Amino acid sequence: MRERAELEGSQLSRLKLDLASRGLSPRKRFGQNFLIRPDLAERIVGHSHLDPDDVVVEIGPGAGALTLHLVGRVRRLIAIEKDDGLAAMLREQLAEAPGLAVVNADFLEVDLAALAAEYGVPKLRVVGNIPYSVTTPILERIFEQRAVISTAVLLVQKEYAERLGAPAGSPEYGSLTLFARYHAVLEPLMTVRAAAFWPRPEVDSMLVRFFLREGPPVDVPDEALLFRIIRGSFQMRRKTLLNTLEAALDLPKVTIERLSRQARIDPARRGETLTLEEFARLARAAADRLA
After folding, report:
1. Which of 50, 177, 180, 271 is deepest in the core (most CB within 10 A)?
2. 14-73: per-residue pLDDT in tens?
3. How are strands ordered across the β-sheet holding 76-81?
């Protein structure tokens, strides 16, 4: 315990000196919480199961806690950092690191397909300690570009991770759960306590691995319609499908009853009890009605 405290203290002291010497400090606007436990950084990278020939995109390397353990382990590491000062610091400190490219850009605007083509790989691997405030936009971007991503290993807020993996009928289960499940298979890997970061966040984090799906796990004729039904069901969480679908689809109750029977689902159920496959059955029935 004493050795760990000394390690954390020395790491934090070095980080503060490095930042101060460049006139930098953690920026709340960017949601910057720097990992100060090298042992955890090593474990996180180990959980990523990277191969020497991989091309890896690191989201928000910050002060380089994970970057230091990623360089030299893969063929190419592309560290995408939005903060100008931190990007410059990484370029200076890791100028001799093999296979590292530091890109000063917003990950949400990066064309991953172009990166995969540039480095001649069909799929990229993604790793990152990502800001809590933009977790959903980052996931949306990853899912949007899933054709060129095999896995993503991300540190997210623990409560957010619990929502991602929640079972139907639980309080955490919602449209986010189903959105993630539609695009990826999730594997929770480890909890990282708030004390492992500086500045210390108010909540713990969890490391989650996303295996991006080659194709959707359910058959629907209209993906947009599926998520319209899902979102509508959870916007009025305590109401029955008869009421939520009437509002979401702008159809009369008698029609909702018919399509529910067609989908073999009781319209008196609440959306929070339905699985992704059941929502897909509703979407198929609705598509027939709305055609």
Report:
1. 271
2. 999 999 999 999 998 888 999 999 999 999 999 999 999 999 999 999 999 999 999 999
3. 100-104, 76-81, 55-59, 124-129, 149-157, 205-212, 184-192
